[in-house]
């Protein structure tokens, strides 16, 4: 029993949920509101994603580094010791790339994964994978705004690890997770780190996150019917 509790606590230590302050809750209210148009939705998402990326970059290893300021005084800071690769799960994950470009100052590359799930069975399948050379040496930010059942994320992590990326070097960056999805993914990959802006308790019978925010890709790209 004690070992089970310890394992559960270790899983939760690898899951970061952003501080639910008023600024974030206001942004989450905007993107969850069915009356928010696509322009307002995307603008709010981009602000949330910047906060997520900043938090996720805390998982990049660093070392102490002392510099000299313009008044000839030493300053003990840090410098990162690894590069970063952002891997988008298309299409929604691609909307998080610009925030990573704007936030990260070190070596940066990008990869793409196209993963789709059968609407009836919810089984995910990879249709396209393009990853940069040397990705196994980087910290990989797996960009996926919605984590429902976890099927697509599991496929993505399996693809990354089969290409030499250590599980411990992968950080899932996510806007809204379901509680079930977090449990499934963190249980399947004990070394994976997850950074999310919100966790919703339920999934509908069709495996949509509830209360959720609807179809993220359609709302962000303005392709809703």
TrEMBL record:
Keywords: Allosteric enzyme, Glycosyltransferase, GTP-binding, Nucleotide-binding, Transferase. It is an enzyme of class 2 (transferase). Residues 20-223 form the Phosphoribosyltransferase domain. Pathway: Pyrimidine metabolism; UMP biosynthesis via salvage pathway; UMP from uracil: step 1/1. Gene3D superfamilies: 3.40.50.2020. Its EC number is 2.4.2.9. GO terms for molecular function: GTP binding; uracil phosphoribosyltransferase activity. Its cofactor is Mg(2+). InterPro entries: PRTase-like, PRTase_dom. GO terms for biological process: pyrimidine-containing compound salvage. It comes from the Eukaryota. Belongs to the UPRTase family. This is uracil phosphoribosyltransferase.
């Amino acid at each position: 029993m004690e070992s089970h509790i310890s394992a559960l606590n270790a899983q939760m230590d690898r899951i970061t949920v952003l501080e639910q302050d008023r600024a974030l809750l206001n942004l989450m209210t905007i993107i969850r509101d069915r009356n928010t148009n696509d322009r307002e939705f995307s603008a709010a998402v981009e602000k949330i994603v910047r906060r997520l990326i900043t938090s996720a970059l805390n998982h990049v290893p660093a070392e102490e580094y002392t510099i000299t300021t313009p008044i000839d005084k030493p300053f003990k800071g840090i410098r990162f010791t690894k590069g970063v690769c952002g891997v988008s799960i298309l299409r929604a994950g691609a909307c998080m790339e610009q925030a990573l470009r704007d936030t990260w100052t070190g070596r940066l590359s990008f990869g793409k994964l196209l993963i789709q799930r059968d609407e009836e069975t919810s089984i995910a399948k990879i249709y396209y994978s393009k990853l940069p050379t040397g990705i196994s040496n980087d910290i990989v930010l797996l960009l996926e705004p919605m984590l429902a059942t976890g099927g697509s994320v599991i496929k993505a992590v399996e693809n990354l690890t089969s290409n030499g990326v250590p599980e411990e070097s992968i950080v899932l960056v996510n806007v809204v997770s379901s509680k079930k999805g977090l449990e499934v993914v963190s249980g399947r990959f004990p070394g994976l780190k997850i950074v999310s802006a919100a966790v919703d308790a339920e999934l509908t019978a069709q495996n949509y996150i509830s209360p959720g925010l609807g179809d993220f890709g359609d709302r962000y790209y303005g392709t809703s019917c």
